[in-house]
Automatic annotation (TrEMBL):
Protein name, entry field: Glycosyltransferase
Gene3D superfamilies: Glycogen Phosphorylase B
Keyword Transit peptide: no
Source organism (scientific name): Rhynchospora pubera
Sequence similarity: Belongs to the UDP-glycosyltransferase family.
InterPro entries linked: UDP-glycosyltransf_plant (IPR050481), UDP_glucos_trans (IPR002213), UDP_glycos_trans_CS (IPR035595)
UniProtKB keywords: Glycosyltransferase, Signal, Transferase
Amino acid sequence: MTSGASILAVWLHLPVLHHTIEKSFKDMADEPVHVPGVPPILASDMPVSVHDRESETYQGRIRNYSQMTEADGIIVNTFEGLEPRAVVALKDGRCVPDRRMPPVYCIGPLIAGIDKQKESQGRHECLAWLDSQPKRSVVYLCFGSAGAFSPEQIKEIAVGLESSGHRFLWVVCSRDDAKNIFKPRSEPDLNSLLPDGFLTRTKEQGMVVKSWAPQIEVLNHESIRGFVSHCGWNSALEAMLAGVPMICWPLYAEQAINKVLLVEELKVGMAMEGYDKELVHAEEVEAKVRYLMESEGGRTVRERMGAFREKAVKALVQGGSLDEELRSFVKDIRDARKR
């Protein structure tokens, strides 16, 4: 099963791009890359694994994505109401011209349930803190299981949050080599990572959690108003089903493409400027938090996310699009066995 339809469209179309674009993506900077059904993607936002067309990784990806069309079908964790242009482009075969396009089954949005998370982890202390906060007053920051920052970046985030004046729940991860997502990380020492006196000054404003929080429960808590996220697909779906708008800060893999969908296509989030540079400065963190939490533009983004939440919930109800796609998938499997 793949993540979103937009990502699937990019992967399937990559062999076409390989033959129509002579340069490596790393040499194209901010030139747009065009994929059927997907908003234009800056070359710099393509996953690092395909930046260099001469690399072994890139060549392996081209082979793998070319072979995807040989599948009997492809399951995607999305629903057509979320990514209609990408789903139609896939089903029409426009992403793989001159090749057979397998059936695409959109059986999303699939996320873990809150009850399952409660059973496996118990109630986290951050939830009690959220209970004490006013409704829709907290911005939540979390960057996934591999989303860690350098000590310098953590200090910039801290200064920006404090200056914003808004309540925050922040899951802090750190590693010495923040660019190596596969390098094991140790338990963060908050006193050494955060600015002097930060925890004392902000004890009434925010809560800092080490390494992990029960994200589904947090996003569905009535005190949460916004979500600063790395734009992993699971996190994006979790935010959508909770109706929480996003500040998009992609870090690796396909997250920058997800950012394009969320910001440019769906307009349920806004990009943290400088995410692709060495450092996002405190002023940008403060500005984006204030915009989402205070401004008319932020209100519009929240309303759009609320509308997509309704679509997502409708897809999940009995007889919704998820049921229909699953029935189609099972029928095709049964028919294939009879042949």
